[in-house]
Design brief:
Shape: extended
Number of helices: 3
């Protein structure tokens, strides 16, 4: 990995969010059921997948 690529891939921006009891219980059940090893990675990837999917849905097409 080049130095430029390595520098750009560092996670330097921190986001904090809160969950209510039901959301937290659902997340914990999911993590236990599917044996998620890395909670931060799971949340980050799930969030980014949802964002990318929405961008693709909203992307203008030639024949709309």
């Amino acid at each position: 990995m080049t130095e430029k690529r390595k520098k750009n891939s560092l996670r330097t921006h921190k986001y904090v969010f809160t969950l209510n009891d039901e959301e937290n219980n659902a997340l914990n059940r999911y993590i236990a059921k599917y044996k998620v090893q890395n909670r931060s990675r799971f949340i980050r990837e799930t969030l980014m997948i949802a964002i990318i999917k929405k961008f693709e849905e909203d992307h203008p097409t030639l024949f709309d």
